Every structure is written in C-alpha cells, then in structure tokens.
Amino acid sequence: MNWTLNISKKASKMILELPKNVQKSLIALLADIENNGPVRGNWANYSKLAPTRHHCHIKKGSPTYVAVWEETDKEIKLIEVTYAGTHEKAPY
Question: Disulfide engineering: 25 pairs with which of 6, 36, 58, 89, CB 3.0-4.6 Å?
Fold first, then answer.
C-alpha cells in the first residue's frame, strides 16, 4: 500500500515559486516518498528531525532548497509536506 501525501497550503504556495529544476526534483522526491515511505536515506542530506518529522535537500548550492515532511498517521500511511523552500528559512 502506498503512502498518501498531503501538501499544506503554505507549502503549495512555496512550491509554485520554486525554480523549475527544483520543482522537478521535489516531484521526484514526493513520488519516492509516496511509493517507499517517509524515510528517504537515498536522498542528499536526508535526516530525521524528530521521530515523525523528516527533511532533505532537493538542490545543493546557493541557495540550497529543502523539503520538510511529517508522518501524521502511520495506520493509514499519511504524510504531510509542510515546507519546500530555501534552507535559510526552513522550519527546523
């Protein structure tokens, strides 16, 4: 069973403002999370921020772009993307 992804309103707005190449990387990451779950050790600089909160870099360099997501319900396999934007403004 795949995971269900929700994207917060704030993250949705941020995603639309990302450069196209970063949007493509984020889409690939979201597909990977949906198919394989929230723990994505195969992505650059992935780490757990808390037991149910995760992040990884979707583009290195300057500026660095990151995505932050949280497992909200393991029973029904639900994940919410809460942030997608520059490293400097990331909520961690």
Answer: 58
Q: Which CATH number does the domain housing residue 37 bear?
A: 3.30.2310.20
Domain count, the chain: 1
Query: Hunting for tokens 């450069």 — which residue is that?
Result: 19
CA distance 45 to 53: 14
Sign of CA pseudo-dihedral 46, 34, 73, 17: positive
User: Which range of residues forms the domain containing residue 11?
Assistant: 4-89
